[in-house]
Structures are given as C-alpha cells and as structure tokens.
User: What shape does this take?
Amino acid sequence: MITIDIRQPLARFTLEVSCSLEEPVTAVVGASGSGKTSLLEAIAGLRAATRGRIAIDGSVLLDSERGIALPPDQRRVGYVPQEIALFPHLRARDNVTFASRDPAHLAMLSEILELAPLLDRFPSALSGGERQRVALARALMAHPRLLLLDEPLAALDQPLRERILVYLRRIRDRERLPMIYVTHQPVEAMALANFCIVLRDGRVAGQGKPDDVLRDPRVAATTDVDNVFEVFDPQHDPTKGTTRVRTSDGVALVLPYDHVSAAVFPLVVRISGEEIVVFGRRPESVSSRNILEGPITDLRVHEGMADLTIAAPMPIRVRLTRSAAEDLGLAVGHRVWMALRSRSFRVIG
Amino acid sequence: MSEISLLVLSLKIAALSTIAIIIPALALAAWSWQRSGAWRALVDATAMLPLILPPTAVGFVLLMILGRRSTIGHMLERIGISVLFTPTAAVIAAAVMSFPLMFVMFRAAIDSTELRYFQIARTLGATPLRAFMRVTLPLAWRGLAAGVLLAYCRAIGEFGATAMIAGNIPGRTQTLALAIYQRVEAGREEDARTLVVYVVLLALTSLIASEVLISRQRKRTA
Assistant: This one.
C-alpha cells in the first residue's frame, strides 16, 4: 500500500494530495497544469520543497515532521517522465543496464518488451514507441518498488498506443509492480487502472474506481461516452468471422475475428457511445451481432445531445441527438435495447 | 634565448596551469550548478574576481600570500621551497588568472545539459557523484573541452600577475607575453612582431577549435 499526504508549493497553487493506494495500478487524471507531473516528481524525490509523508508498504520515503527525506537514489521508485529522457550518449543496452546488469532480468524484460532488435542502437535511432519500451526497461532494471509513468502514450499515434498498452499490461501482470500512471486520457485510465485519482488545481477532485470517478458529474473529468470493457475467454470462429468473448460482468459479446485473432487475452476493447444504436422495443432483424438490453439509469441533456447510461448490467454510455431521445420518449427507468456493431469495437490492448 | 625555447616554455607554463585548475574548476562548477541563493552568488563572484580585477591587483595579493612575510610563504621557505620568481610562480599566476574563464565555461557546459538526465539517473539508484560522472559529464564534454582550450589561451596571454610574482627572467619565467613587452621596451620591434604572430596563430587555432566544440555542444543538447 502506498500512502501519500503531501504539500508542495507550485507556481500557481499548492499541490495538496492525500490518498492511500491499494490497487496495483492507479491512474492520475487531470487537465494539463493540474499538478500531475509535480505529484510524480514529489514521489520520486525530485522536488526539494515537498512537505508531508510518503510511504510504500510502511517504508517511509518522506516524513518532513521527522526530518526524513530519502534522496531519489534511495527511494527505489522508477520514473519514466513524459519526455522519456533516454541518455542520448548511451546505446539502448547501456541505458537499460544503467542501474543493474542482472542478465536474467534483462533477458526477461527483453522478452516482455521485445527489446532485442533495439539494444545496439542509440536513442536518436529509435522511434517514439521504441524509446518508450527502452525507458520502461531501464526503470524496471532498477527493481523499483513503485513505477511512475507520466503520460506514456501521449506522444504516440493510435496504433502504437495500443501496442504500448499491451506492454504495460504485461508489465503489470508479470512484474507485479504497483504503478502510478498519469494521463489526461480517461480511456487509458479505464484500460489499465483499478483506481483513479482526479486532480484539479493541485487538489484531489475525486478518487475511486476509474469508471465511476471519471464520469461523476461532480468530478467531470470527462464528458466523452467511451465504453471500455475487459474481455475474456475468446472463442474464435474464423469461418463466421467472429470471436465470442465474455466481459467481467459475464455479458457475452461478439467481436470481429480479424481484429482480435492475434490479440492477447484478457483484452481491453472500447466502443464509443456515439456508435451505439438505441431501440425503444426489442429489435427484430438487425445485422448487429450484439444486442444488449437494460433500464436507463441516467439521462443527461446538454447542447442538443442526450447522454444515457444503461445498466446492461454493466453501465453503458450512449450519446444520441436530443431529438432522437425525445422521439423515443426516453426517461430514467425505461427499458431499452442497444445494438453494438462488432466492427465498432476498437482494441485498446 | 631562442624563440623556440621561449615558445616551449610559454606553452609548458600555460599547460601546467590549465591542468592544475581543471579539477577545482569542475568541482566548483558542479557545486554551483545545483545551488541557488546567497552562497552560490558569493562563491561564483569570488571565483570570477580575477577576471574583473586589474591583473596587477591579483599579482599583489599573490605576492602577499606567497611572500616571506606571510604564513604560507614562511612555511614554504622553512621546508626549502621558494615560489616567488620561479617558473612555479608563473604557473600559479596563469592558473589564478585563467580560473574564472574555465569556471564560467564549465558552468555553461553543465547548464546546457538537461537536468532531467541527471534526475533520472538518480531515480535509477545513482549517487549524485555517479549520476554526474556517467551522465552529465559525458553530455557536457564538448563544452568542457572548449573551456579548457579558452583557459589555456588565457594562460598563454597572462602578463600582469606573472610579471609581479614571477618576474621576467629569460629562460626561467619569461613567457611570450613578457618577452613581447621586453622586446618592445628595448626597441627590438622586429623581434616582438615575430612573437606576436606566434601568439595570434596559437590563440586563433584554439578559439576556432573551441567555437566548433561549443556549437556541437549546443546541437547535441538541443
């Protein structure tokens, strides 16, 4: 468990964060300038003015009342900053083995992160995604007790993001290392994290399960209507072109075989609420492979749009035009049916 | 005294003085890099002083420190070492006078490296010294080399403080700068001109080399 209770004076405001993190992956979400990076730097020991207390599993990194402030090299906290900061004068191999040369650990990380073809190159000869993998390996070789990741996907384009998320999920599952993951993309928080903190102007505006916190109207970290599911137990049927899976809530979904046949399960998939069709009655002949039903639990109207949450039973967000919502006579408590085209699902990782 | 041996003596004195200040200048620049506030301002200003003061004033202070009547001079004399008016004095004068330039150049070179690399090395378990030696120093090396070259040039050109504590003894403490002065004084302008050509060529080569190094340092850290 990681306990944080700190104050850190910044240019525009004072960062004041108090939380206990028990889940393997915590996402810190917030707009730029909300203090996310400063929080990571305070945990890593890179900010001298931090006051308060930080402890990992009872071992104290900072306790300003008792005059304890471990320097960064004694904290065993891995930090991959947003700009990655691979040492430009060292080859990828020397970057990775900066903290330790343990060949067994290097071999394992090389396998997880597919580093072998990169090791003899200088950072300037690596692409954004390759640098990210080398930086992850470099941090992990130091055997950290906690890994801090600052916007690891921000500089990457969409297909690459999905690949790096796969690597991060492997690290999460294989290294069993707690992570704090900073992002301004709620969908990443939902894909990777079990716990989420929303920062606003240096203060915790909300914390809890990502799916709940990020959509809490009081937190309003996101107004998007992405639906992110972790899916298991693939049953591939190449001749029909489908793969049947099950969500963590036990709901069966059908995904396009060609999109997921090579994927590693469990897999995180996303479907935008703008691509889901809603019916007031059970639809009869529809091409969509996924028909879900449930009652409307939340209906919010804004700027000509209506955002619904439907318990199917996992909450599914749908965005309709206001006129469509009015024509169907939708209201909280009404039972509706939804069509989720299998090809509208995106694989996140 | 032949011009070649004059040249060799000057280069030797400048080289020894430059080598002598590399470690202190680097240590001070590294110390100053990570600090701010009154202490840093005071230390930086003191290190820079010889650059601003008249060289004769620096020479006078050195004379006071190394002369027989001072504690240091007295102790040195008791163990049979006399510094004043020896080649060692010329090395000390050149070292003190070129120290500020080397310090400023080293500071700029270290400043031009991203602090981020140093910080990341620390999170990877490196002590401040190891992080500095393995990350900051290799990234700054071109700027550091430029600093060494410029300090070397400054040492070759050193005149005032050297004249005061090392004198102008041909074959012993007479450097190029002092020899030019002496030859002009004696009306040997032709001879002085040859020496000036030497000095200009030496300085020009070093300056060009250091410019190249500095521009590469900028490119590397950009």
About this structure: Chain B touches chain A through 19 residues (CB under 8 Å). Chain B has one domain: 3-221. The two ends of chain B are 50 Å apart (CA to CA). The domain at 3-221 of chain B is CATH 1.10.3720.10 (MetI-like fold).
